[in-house]
TrEMBL record:
GO molecular function: oligogalacturonide lyase activity
Record's protein name: Oligogalacturonate lyase
InterPro entries named among the record's database cross-references: Ogl_dom, WD40/YVTN_repeat-like_dom_sf
Keyword DNA-binding: no
Domain annotation Oligogalacturonate lyase: ranges: 1-163
Pfam family, one: Pectate_lyase22
Species for this entry: Vibrio alginolyticus
Record has Lyase as a keyword: yes
An individual GO BP term: pectin catabolic process
Keywords in alphabetical order: Lyase
Length: 163
């Protein structure tokens, strides 16, 4: 039998992925203020949307009660929320947008909203994408490449030291 866990408030638009913690007791998601949202029907629209600096919020939802808590809100396009495995106190997310315009894609925040920190400042011409946690939570991995090059490298960063 299906059961409603959470309904997005009418002033917001649910966006992208929703990811549960390791115990499957809560999940994180991204919402965009509805008046800022627009459909992304092409790469041109994708780039245009980045420049609108939409109001976005990273939220957590208690799966049992449906209770919502805002972890982080910003006038920047946020995406890809993901709990650190076996450590609910750390949530990863990204600054979304065209790779050549986003200068620091990957971010971490404490679940209580404190200690917002970027994982990596991009080097000149570098794009980082497809961030994901190593399954034991020991590192955040990501794909890095440089403009005009076809080589891709997968790096990992320690969530405690950001090295």
């Amino acid at each position: 039998e299906e059961q409603v866990i959470y309904t997005v408030d009418e002033e917001w638009k649910g966006y992208g992925t929703w990811v549960a913690n390791s115990d499957c007791t809560k999940l994180v998601g991204i919402e965009i203020l509805k008046r800022d949202w627009q459909p992304l029907t092409s790469w041109e629209k994708f780039a245009e949307f980045y420049h609108t600096n939409p109001t976005c919020r990273l939220i957590k939802v208690d799966i049992e009660t449906g209770e919502l808590e805002v972890i982080h809100q910003d006038t920047a396009w946020l995406g890809h929320p993901i709990y650190r495995p076996f450590d609910d106190s750390t949530v990863g997310f990204c600054h979304e947008g065209p790779h050549d315009l986003v200068d620091a894609r990957m971010w971490l925040v404490n679940e209580d909203g404190s200690n917002v920190r970027k994982i990596k400042e991009h080097a000149e011409g570098e794009s980082c994408t497809h961030e994901f946690w190593i399954p034991d939570g020991s590192a955040m991995a990501y794909v890095s490449y440089f403009k005009g090059q076809t080589d891709r490298v997968i790096y990992k960063a320690n969530p405690e030291t950001l090295e």
